[in-house]
């Protein structure tokens, strides 16, 4: 099973601040997906295949990485970006998710 | 518009069974792999099961293998999850999701396993 480790677990960012969330895999994966989950809501696909933005995702978001190290970056934090972000690998079964990074507004 | 609507959740005693359903609309259901993903209270996401377009192939993590069965009825655009021998650790919100990646999710249905 591929274990995904996200860091940090929790962080707070001010409006306009650049934010980088990290996801590390215990074995190499072909790509990474990212999901955003706001409090009380279902998760939403946010970034797929490492760097492709899902429909409706603002272009201040970007994704990058390869092998065992992946990241999600917000170029300039906005209020609506406060949420929990999960990474997920779909390269091999069992599919696994990271434990999530809770991003709060400072 | 893609819609996934789960039903069938509730309170069930340990060791008993429960069957969840997911009604899909807004897309050609038979063309997509489908999955169940769960989230225990205040916890992260856990993939539970995946089924191929025809239903001939199914995939599970070890945590539910042998206890849970995913199935589908393409004529009814419906997805199912039969959960047997339920344990307290199966308590979670269960989401129906379209593959792949999981680009559409339902609103979720709560399953509580408790005596």
Please characterize this protein's 3D structure:
- The complex is a heterodimer of chains A (106) and B (115).
- Chain A is mainly β and 106 residues long.
- Chain A contains no helices and eleven strands.
- Chain A has strands at residues 4-7, 10-13, 19-25, 33-37, 44-48, 52-53, 61-66, 69-74, 83-89, 96-97, 101-105.
- The termini of chain A are far apart.
- Chain B is mainly β and 115 residues long.
- In chain B, strands 2, 4, 5, 6, 9, 10 and 11 form a seven-stranded mixed beta sheet that branches.
- In chain B, a hairpin with a 4-residue loop joins strand 7 and strand 8 (78-83).
- Chain B starts with a strand and ends with a strand.
- The mean pLDDT of chain B is 97.
- The chains are: A mainly beta (106), B mainly beta (115).
- Chain A binds chain B through residues 1, 33, 35, 37, 42-45, 48-49, 54, 86, 88, 90, 93-100, and chain B through 35, 37, 44-47, 50, 59-62, 95, 100-108.
As a whole number of angstroms, the C-alpha radius of gyration of chain A is: 13 Å
Helix share, percent of chain B: under 10%
- Low-pLDDT ranges of chain A: none
Q: Largest inter-chain interface?
A: A-B, 22 and 21 residues
The helix tally of chain B amounts to 0
Structural class of chain B: mainly beta
DSSP strand (E) fraction of chain A?
over 45%
Shape of chain B: globular
| Element order of chain A: H for helix, E for strand | EEEEEEEEEEE
Low-confidence spans of chain B: pLDDT under 50, at least 5 residues?
A: none
Q: Determine Rg of chain B (CA atoms, Å).
A: 13 Å
Quaternary structure: heterodimer
Strand content of chain B: over 45%
Distance between the termini of chain A: 36 Å
- Anisotropy-based shape of chain A: globular
N/C terminus separation of chain B: 40 Å
Mean pLDDT of chain A: 97
**Class from helix and strand fractions of chain A:** mainly beta
Could you give a short account of the major beta sheet of chain B? 7 strands, mixed
Total count of helical runs of at least 4 residues of chain A:
0
- What do the pLDDT scores of chain B average to? 97
């Amino acid at each position: 099973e591929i274990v995904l480790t996200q860091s940090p677990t929790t962080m707070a960012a001010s409006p306009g601040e650049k934010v980088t969330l990290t996801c590390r895999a215990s074995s190499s994966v072909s790509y990474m997906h990212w999901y955003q989950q706001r409090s009380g809501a279902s998760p939403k696909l946010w970034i797929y295949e490492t760097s492709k933005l899902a429909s409706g995702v603002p272009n201040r978001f970007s994704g990058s990485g390869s092998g065992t190290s992946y990241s999600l970056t917000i170029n300039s934090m906005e209020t609506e970006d406060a949420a929990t972000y999960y990474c997920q690998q779909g390269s091999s079964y069992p599919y696994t998710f990271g434990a999530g990074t809770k991003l709060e507004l400072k | 518009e893609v819609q996934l609507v789960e039903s069938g959740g509730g309170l069930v005693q340990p060791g008993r069974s429960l069957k969840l359903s997911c009604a899909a609309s807004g897309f050609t259901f038979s063309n997509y792999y489908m999955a169940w993903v769960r989230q225990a209270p205040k916890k992260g996401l856990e993939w539970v099961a995946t089924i191929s377009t025809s239903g001939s192939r199914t995939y599970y993590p070890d945590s539910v293998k042998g206890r849970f069965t995913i199935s589908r009825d393409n004529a009814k655009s419906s997805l199912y999850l039969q959960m047997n021998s339920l344990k307290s650790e199966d308590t979670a919100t269960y989401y129906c999701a379209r593959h792949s990646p999981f680009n559409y999710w339902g609103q979720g249905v709560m399953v509580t396993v408790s005596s």
